[in-house]
Specification:
Number of domains: 1
Strand content: under 5%
Radius of gyration: 18 Å
CATH topology: Four Helix Bundle (Hemerythrin (Met), subunit A)
Mean pLDDT: 84
Number of strands: 2
Shape: globular
Order of helices and strands: EEHHHHHHHHH
């Protein structure tokens, strides 16, 4: 979905438009759901809480280590990611954006990411009797935790230096990839993250979500390393 941050015909109000590109896929799900949620007396933070609950429930299902549980977990993760898009859209459309809401959203993302890999590692380890799967999951969780800590540091620095963009301003940016390196970072750091739930569900259909554990253990470290650089920030997805 493409949110037009400032519509000159509406006195700076936010507008919501249909997704104009294929990816990320979750935007196609969040668009109709946002339109529905806008009719309800629900706050953006409550939507974030629902997203967090769905994500943690999905992680628990993956910890069970069965294919059926994995499919349910995958669906819950899609619900989590879809709602995660909706909370920001609703906040902007209702003019309810807040610093606390942005922090709560980041916290929820970290908790879901960490719980997912820990739960998946536990489930695969229990199913196979091999402890190293759990260690891979915990390594991915550690990477997600480091990345969350880096985000907090950048945000604290931005608050101390008024010349730097705030997290809210960065999220509203419309930066697009300009060269090959930009595209590689964009695909790895943003686009794959936005549709990660779709990847998980696709793998769950074939009961091969275990492949995410070694990839996650390595990829999570690469993710937080790239997050150290400004070039990896401010993408619009």
């Amino acid at each position: 979905m493409i949110e037009n941050p400032e519509d000159p015909t509406s006195d700076g109000a936010y507008t919501l438009s249909r997704p104009a590109q294929l990816l990320p896929l979750t935007r196609h799900l969040s668009y109709p759901l946002t339109l529905f949620l806008l009719k309800l007396p629900i706050s953006p933070n409550q939507v974030t809480a629902l997203s967090l609950a769905a994500g943690l429930a999905g992680a628990w299902y993956f910890s069970l280590g069965t294919m059926d549980a994995g499919l349910i977990g995958g669906l819950l993760l899609i619900a989590c990611y879809t709602l995660d898009n909706c909370d920001g859209e609703i906040a902007r459309l209702k003019n309810l954006s807040s610093e606390w809401g942005a922090q709560f959203d980041d916290l929820a993302d970290w908790l879901v990411d960490g719980a997912f890999f820990a739960g998946l590692g536990f489930g695969v380890s229990a199913a196979t009797g091999e402890a190293f799967w759990l260690w891979l999951g915990l390594a991915a969780t550690a990477g997600a935790t480091i990345d969350y800590g880096i985000d907090l540091i950048f945000h604290a620095r931005a608050k101390q230096d008024p010349a730097q963009e705030t997290r809210e301003e960065t999220a509203r940016g419309d930066r697009k990839p300009e060269d090959v390196l930009d595209w590689l970072i964009y695909i790895f750091h943003k686009l794959s993250r936005a549709d990660f739930c779709v990847i998980v569900f696709g793998l769950a259909l074939f009961d091969v979500t275990w492949v995410l554990l070694p990839l996650g253990a390595i990829g999570a470290q690469a993710y937080w390393v790239t997050d150290l650089f400004q070039r990896a920030r401010g993408w619009h997805t």
